[in-house]
Design brief:
The chain is of the alpha/beta class. It has helices at 29-44, 67-71, 75-93, 110-116, 144-152, 154-163, 169-175, 187-199, 203-215, 221-236, 239-250, and strands spanning 4-10, 13-18, 50-55, 60-62, 99-103, 106-108, 120-124, 128-130, 166-168, 180-182. The protein folds into two domains: 4-199, 2-enoyl-CoA Hydratase, Chain A, domain 1 (Alpha-Beta Complex), CATH 3.90.226.10; 203-259, Lyase 2-enoyl-coa Hydratase, Chain  A, domain 2. It is built from eleven helices and ten strands. Belongs to the enoyl-CoA hydratase/isomerase family.
């Protein structure tokens, strides 16, 4: 993969690096293909308990779609590209393990949508986020209209989408667009620290908790509780649960068999 890099950054933690710095990680067709490949590989692994999504670009997490590439597109080209870009964003969203975004600099349009597709967003003081798509004649198409609304509510999402305005890190935290703000230059380290803490827990428990939370998000309470019960059963009778109880009784760190 040329524009996305996967690397281990600790036991059971993998970093997915957006790696097209010369274009501030603008999502070209080639980069979207690499994201699909990378997330497919991560989804198929059993030893990865948490993922950090970061950027190799100095001034940006990701500035969104590659508009220079799209400027030369015909309508047919745009339609042909759509399944690939949609699969790229969905690949991040559908990762079965917890995912933490490490955001610095610009995270705009599709770049902000990549962050929104993660479970937690850590931003440093330099972060600037926004969904400016209506200012260039389209709408957020990488999940932004849905994910931002679910994160911050209708009125705040409408304000940001309809005005196309950008938020500083402090404003993004106040709006609920990001979860933590850290000093400039430390977002990646903070995200890895969070992911490492997550990865100390049961891999079966982590995946089932994420599954229950995601599947239960948009259903009625009774259905959500049924989803939770199904996920609970998947953990309650797993080797991880037996090991967790045994380790607690023996006052030692668990050795989770769920990675096997």
């Amino acid at each position: 993969m040329e524009h996305v890099t996967l690397r281990a950054v600790g036991e059971h933690v993998v970093e997915l690096v957006l790696n097209r710095p010369e274009a501030l990680n603008a999502v070209s067709t080639a980069m979207a293909r690499d994201l699909v490949e990378a997330t497919s590989a991560l989804a198929a692994t059993r030893g990865t308990r948490a993922v950090v999504v970061s950027s190799s670009a100095e001034k940006a997490f990701c500035v969104g779609a590659d508009l220079k590439e799209r400027n030369g597109f015909s309508d047919a080209d745009l339609i042909a590209q759509r399944p690939t870009t949609a699969a790229a964003y969905r690949g991040v969203l559908d990762l079965p393990m917890p995912v933490v975004a490490a955001v610095h600099g610009y995270a705009l349009g599709g770049g902000f949508e990549i962050a929104l597709s993660c479970d937690l967003v850590v931003a440093d003081d330099t972060a600037v986020v926004g969904l400016p798509e209506v200012s260039v004649g389209v709408i957020p198409g990488g999940g932004g209209t849905q994910l931002l609304t679910r994160r911050v509510g209708w009125s705040r999402a409408a304000d940001l989408v309809f005005t196309a305005r950008r938020l500083t890190a402090a404003e993004a935290l106040a709006h609920g667009c990001v979860d933590r703000v850290v000093p400039a230059g430390t977002a990646r380290d903070a995200a890895i620290e969070i992911a490492t803490a997550i990865a100390a827990n049961s891999p079966v428990g982590l995946r089932q908790a994420k599954r229950a939370m995601r599947l239960g998000l948009d259903v009625d309470l009774a259905t959500g509780l049924a989803v939770e019960d199904s996920a609970w059963r998947a953990t309650a009778f797993s080797p991880d649960r037996a090991e967790g109880v045994r380790a607690f009784a023996e006052r030692r760190p668990p050795v989770w068999p769920g990675d096997a």
